[in-house]
Structures
1.
Amino acid sequence: MTRLWNDPAAFADDMVDGFVRANGRWVRKVTGGVSRSTRSPEPQVALVIGGGSGHYPAFGGLVGPGLAHGAAMGNLFASPSAHQVEGVIRASEQGCGVLLSFGNYAGDVLHFGAAQEAVRQAGIDCRTVTVTDDIFSAPPAEAERRRGIAGDLTVFKAAGAAAAQGSPLDEVERVAIAANARTRSMGVAFTGCTLPGAEEPLFTVPDGKMAVGLGIHGEPGIDLTDIPSADGLAELFVERLLDPAEIPEGAAVRGGRVVPILNGLGSVKNEELYVVYARVADLLEVAGLTLVDPQVGEFCTSFDMAGASLTLFWVDDELERLWLAPADTPAFRTGSMDTSALESVTADGGEAAEAELPASSEESRRAAALIAQALAAVRDLIGEQAAELGRIDAIAGDGDHGIGMQRGTVAAAEAAAALAEQGAGAGSLLARCGDAWSDRAGGTSGALWGLILSTVGSHLGDTELPTPDAVAAGISAATGAVMDYGKAAVGDKTMVDALVPFADTLADRVGAGESLADAWKHAARAAAHAAEATAELMPGMGRARAHGAKSLGTPDPGAVSLALIVERVHPVLAAG
Amino acid sequence: MTRLWNDPAAFADDMVDGFVRANGRWVRKVTGGVSRSTRSPEPQVALVIGGGSGHYPAFGGLVGPGLAHGAAMGNLFASPSAHQVEGVIRASEQGCGVLLSFGNYAGDVLHFGAAQEAVRQAGIDCRTVTVTDDIFSAPPAEAERRRGIAGDLTVFKAAGAAAAQGSPLDEVERVAIAANARTRSMGVAFTGCTLPGAEEPLFTVPDGKMAVGLGIHGEPGIDLTDIPSADGLAELFVERLLDPAEIPEGAAVRGGRVVPILNGLGSVKNEELYVVYARVADLLEVAGLTLVDPQVGEFCTSFDMAGASLTLFWVDDELERLWLAPADTPAFRTGSMDTSALESVTADGGEAAEAELPASSEESRRAAALIAQALAAVRDLIGEQAAELGRIDAIAGDGDHGIGMQRGTVAAAEAAAALAEQGAGAGSLLARCGDAWSDRAGGTSGALWGLILSTVGSHLGDTELPTPDAVAAGISAATGAVMDYGKAAVGDKTMVDALVPFADTLADRVGAGESLADAWKHAARAAAHAAEATAELMPGMGRARAHGAKSLGTPDPGAVSLALIVERVHPVLAAG
């Protein structure tokens, strides 16, 4: 069973976060999943794979040089949406066309198909090869109806290697089709699995029994037997996979070459797999096959389901060469991959080297330096207050507001110092600090603070003197943007409850002719009162509603942090 | 629980077999475990690691260029014996000294220590660094008493990288000590695990509870709590590991650099680990640490135990460089390892290129060609009979006699054809075919047939005419060797029951002046009768005793295959 989660509804998102945090060398987070964090000097056909989550290393673990370019990562055991797939395609394609490949399941076919249509209409050449390796999911005569299980890997690897060597889309598609036609798998299971937070297992296998052909989402198998010995399981695997009806066209048992992939589904461990593999290897060799680069481990799992599958990839010379080509991904590394020529790409897919800073005026640079000072002060303040903000948030939320704000302000202050040093104007500095804050903090508050900084920045520009009017107008515009983005109004117990009175007071006071520092002081006071008053409100939106009763009497952490920040900025403005 | 095995008593051996079959690119089987199957052009300090089995990838999965040179692989959760450790040391050392490293457990300390003494007496410079990373196994003041868990990896990696770059033993030992001093881990568990064939779990954790500090063999922990959220677990890990008493000397939290290793113990899956990791990364960064090359996955398991550990490796510049250096092993691959200069080594540790063949006479080469013909005929015969031999063996044994004989005869026939082509004399051809048979077949029958071929070969030599007397004397000597090695006598229902009458009849007939072909024919008939008669015997030795009743009425498969083989050789002799 699955034991570790925070909010079961957020499990897949949390997982992708952690996956990207741990594997930034290979992947970056994009809309709908992950895409490579590096790019080869020459553009390539982009291989985009994907499917539901819960099958690690499928699918994000297979993204990297020599394998996939991106992976759409759906919810647990659920296809990614067309929107997600499209997001990953757009982040991954390099002008040479896109090959989509995924296991043959109805939901995936639907959503990947819709995404393919959408990007084709945008002029991107996009093809699809579905993986159909599970011999028990349909008879040989209807092989195109079969499901995809651990054989995914052979199709992805062949296509990824072809793309890496610069083959055009026609060729990449051809080898993917050829690899799928030469891949056969069968699986068995001893237990089901329980998804995060579920009361009941998603499916079960009776104690001491083995379900033959059970799918990786619990699709019914063909037989229920006693659990055999390790050798007995090896014999079952090999007997079924060497059935003459399952030998791919153009392949032969005697004198043939196969890559055997013995895959654990979660709780059958490596030691057991190796005991089974010893006999699998014997039986295949005795049948006359030569074994190429065997794989024993976890390649396509079903959470912690106890089970295993054997895949045979019947290689010819071309497929063997593609299989053995180097690859370097979070979960699959083979050969000696030369990564020296790779370039890093940023979260938005552009080159990591930032675009050059626009020309800036002396006065805008002076304002930028002041903003950098303010952001450093804010970082220190939030560092001190993070625990308290987390405590308030934990009463009704998930308690991560403090840490999110801390991540965001640390990133923004760092970026600001560097940009001020490089001579950025106020507008560019704020815009890029907003990106840094949002990227690093994640979550809703990160996105909203990113929006605030970049909206204000676009009102200030890099050459104009940042007048009090421009600042007030920028903050009013940012307030509107936050309300749009967050779909929140005053009274919903969010940051908006403090932001609106802050923006309004600032605009009024500046309009009445006060200095920016004085106007800011009054506005900050209004924000503080409003933040305090959120303690009397019930949350008005979404998931937070369920926690309404708990949060009554406690102010909204987003409103509190906004009030603290604007208060802290005042002395910097006054001194500047 | 563990579900897949053949004979629980043979589980660890079977596992090593499958491991080596799947990973021959990196490892070869040696006495006591595995050693690298490649050697770098320049000799290196040899890093020999090890411990009980059941912790994959510890320990065999960490053998390969840039990491360990060999791993002693004990039985399940049991230290390897001193003899095993010594075997791995001798197979791995290259004249530059040896560093032993392993988790600090009493059994391992004892056996590795005895092996160290033994090889030191043989003039090998050998040192030991035990790993002591588990903070809950002893207080900080007694850190040298602590157990080793997933922190093994950092010590092995640092030492292996130092050895790979050609550092002398003093240096390799120094960095291993430094790495251990800067490594801290803590673990939690949600369930115990059940060893192959056991009725009861080895240890348990109450349902829904988390044992804090439970060891990887079930050693008691320090606390039992409810299972926390993923974030809660991350907080527990980080709080305990950042306790001031646990910060290594010379390291600092603010501004420090750590490699975080979030390790699953078996059934906590990658998705869950990534959810936990997201918060671990946050907390470490917010504390002021820079994260270096994070690792999330399985590095030191406890079969399919549900649990996890976090290791912090507090790197300085040197340790960071060693950590990031390339490594290429079955289970741990990092960086871009140039393997082009590596040479393959054979099972006995020599260069893969066989020693040159001794000079041979024309007549001995003619005999060798005849033997190659005979071995080809035997291979075909056994190919036809393998299923039947397996069937007989399955009645009282494990049913693998047919497949073992098939592996052995295929390997011997292949080797014979190549050696005859290269001009080998009869003696060398038989000796090397015996090695091939034994290596490839494994098991007792493989060892016995290897012994038969090489003993006969040493009686024939490469220059003498292989006379009938020499052949008969060789077969008599081989019979004695088989009885010694197998501790079997006539009447024990083994191959010996057919081999003794075969050898005796052959010697008698040849002594009486018959041609070799005629004498062989009579001897083969005697073997056939004797093999048939084993159906009336009860097994006389070891484990087979329990199966005595079942096998009554069925002949011994080893005796049957011997009789079949000698019968098949007759027409080749008669024609040759």
2.
Amino acid sequence: MIGRLNHVGIATPSIDKAVAVYRDLLGATKIGEKFALPAQGVWVCFVDTPNSQIELIEPYGEDSPIHGFLKKNPAGGQHHVCFEVPDIIAARDDMRAKGATVLGTGEPRIGAHGTPVIFIHPKDMGGVLVELMETPKDAH
Amino acid sequence: MIGRLNHVGIATPSIDKAVAVYRDLLGATKIGEKFALPAQGVWVCFVDTPNSQIELIEPYGEDSPIHGFLKKNPAGGQHHVCFEVPDIIAARDDMRAKGATVLGTGEPRIGAHGTPVIFIHPKDMGGVLVELMETPKDAH
């Protein structure tokens, strides 16, 4: 079912400081503009590698779901892994049929790439928060 | 400097159980054989996606460096991110020149893909343990 590793989500207290690490220390050259996803409670910035992306996420607002993560990991750290799937509803139903817990209501939300996404509970995924994202129709 | 996102390293108390998650729940179809890297203190198993890989790692021996990680994260979790670089010695010297801490002696070791690797301390990388791996000469 899963396709490309679309991105690794990395939580940070400061996207500006994290961008400096990827640009100045690691020499990344393709770094997008920071933008807000208020419905998800995050600021987002993508750092491109030739085959995939790092998604830097910073809390947006008091209710951001990553405040808890940053409380445990004040310097930031790996937050989730995102795999592409061809059909998000089919993926959700498949996950549920296999007994995995889809977070929230299970209704897909629009993710940072403009396509619907769901998240699967880490308890079912070897301790890893897994995002499934419908492949953009015009991608690749 | 950094090139491809070669893999995401995911620590697990049991590669066999983690493989079942990727194969049976997520539907991954290209999963390698488990093998030992005694010098690194890990068992390794690669799960391929079309563009990258998940590297499952399980402790090998009493001195495995991931026992501590699993003590904090008993179910497993995202352990490191590995980027390819064209020349490991140049990458190491560049990291040091920029003030980043290379783990261990700084002498590259042979990693799971048979090419030299180094690890950069998370304190310099936004809380993320970063592996730099020399691109295999016959790759891509």
3.
Amino acid sequence: MEHRISRQMTDATDAYGRRLGAYLEQSSYSRLRGGPGVIDLAFGDPHEFPAPALVEVLQRHLSPQHTDWFAYTRDHPPAQESVAATLSRELALPFTADDVALTNGAFAGLTICLRSVCDPGDEVVYLDPAWFYYEPIIASVGAVPRPVALTPGSWRLDAELVAAAITPRTSAVIVNSPNNPTGAVYTDEEYAALAEVLREASARNGRPVYLLSDEAYRRIVFDGRSCPSPATHYPFTFLVHTYTKTLLLPGERVGYVAIPPTMPDPAVLRRALTVARLTTGWAFPNNSLLFALPELEQHALQVKPIEQRRDLLVDALREAGYEVQPSEGTFYLLARVPDADDWAHAAVLEERGLLVLPASVMGAPGYLRLSLTVTDDMLEETIGRLRSARPSTREHASVQR
Amino acid sequence: MEHRISRQMTDATDAYGRRLGAYLEQSSYSRLRGGPGVIDLAFGDPHEFPAPALVEVLQRHLSPQHTDWFAYTRDHPPAQESVAATLSRELALPFTADDVALTNGAFAGLTICLRSVCDPGDEVVYLDPAWFYYEPIIASVGAVPRPVALTPGSWRLDAELVAAAITPRTSAVIVNSPNNPTGAVYTDEEYAALAEVLREASARNGRPVYLLSDEAYRRIVFDGRSCPSPATHYPFTFLVHTYTKTLLLPGERVGYVAIPPTMPDPAVLRRALTVARLTTGWAFPNNSLLFALPELEQHALQVKPIEQRRDLLVDALREAGYEVQPSEGTFYLLARVPDADDWAHAAVLEERGLLVLPASVMGAPGYLRLSLTVTDDMLEETIGRLRSARPSTREHASVQR
């Protein structure tokens, strides 16, 4: 008897296969990763040991300080208060602890928001290029992904393009700034225009078009920038954050969804987000991370070294014949290949032991994504190999699809 | 503008409110818990410090042993192999690492299975009394919960009752043994009869009726029992386990879904369970727990002290006028009140500082659930207070609904 996988998980599996799955299964990444001399610039993973002080914080909060230490714990007021204090300071809005729903990372944050506001058949708009998991997560809740193609190269948030993509079935729009993979940090002006579009669409549709603001990288901004949030412009916003980027610890998951104090009738949403966490695999952080959170708020990656690596890599990529704009934030650079075939160029670099992501799998065909989380030594080696692998060498590549 | 919460999360919220939410919000539990002299027998939470050796295992696996330690990690072959070895030994079936999908606990295990095989409008059968989260989780995937009322007092798995509840829309049946709250451990004979029913129903429906076997308590069995699994009787079984009970660490979440080696075409399910974990809030365990798992497999609660507490509490409850059968496993005892009003009796005990769960919220009206995870001192005090709070005192209670 044949299996009967649900429509939603079938669609999510197809969406996954079209984007990230295509790379992991059709490239040599999984085979080459970790091999001798291979430098992995494909993903934003850590390549150095975390700061000992950070490990100490994590370990200390695994030492039980009372007998309830490992009991079921949902929210934890000191953790929520520390988040509310940070957001209040950064966004000049009076967030309270109740506005903060703690999660085990941004996967969970995005999923509980979509499960809370999307009915099957609803549409969710997001901007392409995009994180490769938006489409599978949207499909998994039975909603229809509606990607909006941004103008290549500038990648600015274009509210008019969003407006054109909204229909009466649109229940949510996802934006992501600092943006993975483009590196763009959206401005208050861009958010103000978007808010106007969403207000009009909500009024027209007779239901709120919710805004999911994926701010996973909100503390990874360069050149002295701050990171605006649409939460200061549009009340129906879910601000989704995770510490896994800020601390470069994707394997230990803690984050939150915050709703702005301007949100009407917040109790309805708070209850939905609680039940959504209960029914999305207990999407609360593990206790040790929950208890550590006020201290984790004080830790953060040093951004300056990432910025310096960005500058070195931008120069090297340009010298090697790629078009590239310096990122304004995130762990990534997006480099345009001369002839639009990102898979072929990724294969050329792969032959030189450089693993980079063909950004086709993020909706940016013709671009490569490179991660700045490599070490300085790995970067120096990368730059040397880029010099010996100018784009013109691609005719020698054995391209794998 | 009013919020528009999805139908599925609205239904899940209602289901939650009817069961656990009703207790947490309408009883004095949340106010009294942790107060001086208050003994919490309502939930299976730890009340003693965990073994130092267990804490040491957890902390040691937070010490990075290589620079990839905190990188994104999905499955981890040594962890999967240790699970497969245990299950192969216990169930005499040749499980392999690929049969094991690691999760951050049983909430996640159940949720990824249901999201993988249930379409909106499908029906999911489960046996009442039941864990209070089945109904919200089922509702959250858009399926219709179909509780089957077991015969009170015996609470045996009755395959004929399951057969009568299955319709052409049934995509899954959930069973739970050792059973929370009844304490029943189902036998191989009961599972063989159930398997026959499910095989016939699958053939009749032209699609598999999947069996979700919630075996969270499979290592908490008393009187020298073993714990059979339906995975040895029915190929279309998901065996869901979590270490949070075995280690009494609900706050640090790690578990798995295993499919039996008899499962036809397992690749289809493995892929669905992977995408379901990605789209259910990254439902993989945190790295430190993933890496610790082979050692955690060697740790387990001592069952004998729980069994001894069971015996003492059974005697005390009987002496106090309750009908109670000794549990065969789990952390719980189910005690029948003389006049069917479990809320009133819970309120009487609450006045004496004993927090117990009115089992109405688990589909067992007229029963109280008491947890055996209290300390020996707490148990002694509980027994003393039970003696002074015979059921006949209930007319003095101020009952809160």
4.
Amino acid sequence: MTDPRLTRLAASLPATVPFVGPETMEREAGEAFRARLGANESVFGPSPKAVAAMEKAAAESWKYGDSLSHDLRHAIAAYHDVDPAHVLVGEGIDGILGNLVRLTVAEGGAVVTSAGAYPTFNYHVTGFGGTLHKVPFRGDHEDPDALVDKAVETGAKLVYISNPDNPMGSWHDGATVAAMLDRLPDTCLLVLDEAYADFAPEEAIPDIAPTDTRVIRTRTFSKAYGLAGARVGYAIGPVDLIAAFDRVRNHFGMTRVSQDGAVAALADRDWLEKVCRDVERSKARMSEIAAGNGLRALPSATNFVAIDCGRDGGFAREVMLALIARGVFVRMPGVSPLDRCIRITCGTDGDMDVLAETLPLALEDAARNVR
Amino acid sequence: MTDPRLTRLAASLPATVPFVGPETMEREAGEAFRARLGANESVFGPSPKAVAAMEKAAAESWKYGDSLSHDLRHAIAAYHDVDPAHVLVGEGIDGILGNLVRLTVAEGGAVVTSAGAYPTFNYHVTGFGGTLHKVPFRGDHEDPDALVDKAVETGAKLVYISNPDNPMGSWHDGATVAAMLDRLPDTCLLVLDEAYADFAPEEAIPDIAPTDTRVIRTRTFSKAYGLAGARVGYAIGPVDLIAAFDRVRNHFGMTRVSQDGAVAALADRDWLEKVCRDVERSKARMSEIAAGNGLRALPSATNFVAIDCGRDGGFAREVMLALIARGVFVRMPGVSPLDRCIRITCGTDGDMDVLAETLPLALEDAARNVR
């Protein structure tokens, strides 16, 4: 039953959640996964220096975190060579996207994204009563021209693109993304989600001034920095928009441990480079494993690989479920034709051994279940 | 300048923030506080067992936290002897209050609280476009009858009370709070903020069934458990209302370190008892210090003490500023006549020595500045 005190909007919201977590699946299965390769976490872990900083901060957790995340914000600003007034720190990109939607999308307001793109963004748009308009991927890439066209057509407040993208791992060069801005109406903001930028080739990163009022870019410590469980994301955008978050954000919402961990993680460039090498090795191994099973691994500029299972979404789903049943946590895209793929996060050599062992068996299971 | 893409509501919001953090003040002053007694943190720290759990979890921070906070939620449910379906875990009471307001208050919706009560609750109400109706304290207590009267009069969706209360430290017996429910309209929810309940006498805690649909109670790990910087709060309420949070909350918003720290903190009852003894010793010492300076410490069922400075708000404000200038972080109530007091958090013996040293000097400063 719905609580009678909910607002009309709240009462209308679906009870579905963007993602079921692996712990939930493990509790249901009654056993732990052998390989945790479904949420694009970094199995290579955070920098040992970040871990040390977090261990040290634990005993200081009686103090609220710094409401301005001053040290972290300034470190991020220095790293990107922008003024700190352009930088917002938040509780992961998820938290930042929620507040961004809250700030810009009134009930009924139009928002544009790609069909099959980040579900949590859609969750926030729906949650604040916005209307989603979805554009198909084209050739396993998000389609910049179609996104802008749809934004113009619908009078959207926000248009979302991830580059490199999730769930396919593809990317556009930076110039293509930057060119979107020139066709964007003044009343529309580009949300450029660069969660996977740390893994991407340099040419994938657009050269956009932080003062550019047409775009907000999001980054995270959840992927390459290996701190998904610490909930630290940030945005770079125009000063007025960044300042507006102060009107709605949870000012003391960052944990002290996470603030200190992120500062240390950002400073350890060697670790980031090592992680990127580990990711490349895992991607190469995944391509081999896929090929050895007659499947194709799509090119990826991220820490995961979409593996084309060669048939339709029903078959790929059976492959995914069979891998999960055999203790390998993976996920898959939600819409056709992307859903001919399963999405596997890069892992350790041991994780890849488990994948090499289980994938042929999962393919057999799937072939049996889908005639 | 306001970003032109903000919603009408967002553009109308004030740029003020509920609290300026002590780190911000330290950066402005160019030096660290000698005593940090302004935010009702627990200077006695978290349980060493909680610290150990957090240290252990740090290296596991590459994994997202459990989106259901299963272990923590079940531990809280067991502690309160309620079904876990009645328990919501969130990013501090602040985060929970924000989502509660979002779920229940549409633009223009009436909300009732006490003048001078928790500013962050008011911040959320304003932030979602609600209209605040404030009832005065009576005799340094929140006024249950007047709160309910105002809720009836305004058709409020929410009525907020803290028990024990912040900022005065006073409390009502549980029966008085429970009696509010009998006069509450069906369309109104009582928000019973029990952030300080762990310090309160047993008779201050109302006997209310978790199934009671008229009330949601909030608790926190930020006060007695000494984990303000870990951002863990929880609510106990009717199942339908608790479930509704799943429609809007940031599902992976809890950090893994905080989840594990809170589970360990909750289990260490000895530490909680020790902290409560430390708090009592500090309160006794603060009463002595106040009396030695011709001031009166109000009775407190919390981990802070409101000290009546014996004159008006302007004078108390000068005392507060003089303490801050002398390196003692304290705060004060925001409205008359509560603002004749300054509010000082319980501290270590060393903190109390600093207070004993600086308070007479601050009173001299204030007397000089206010003629």
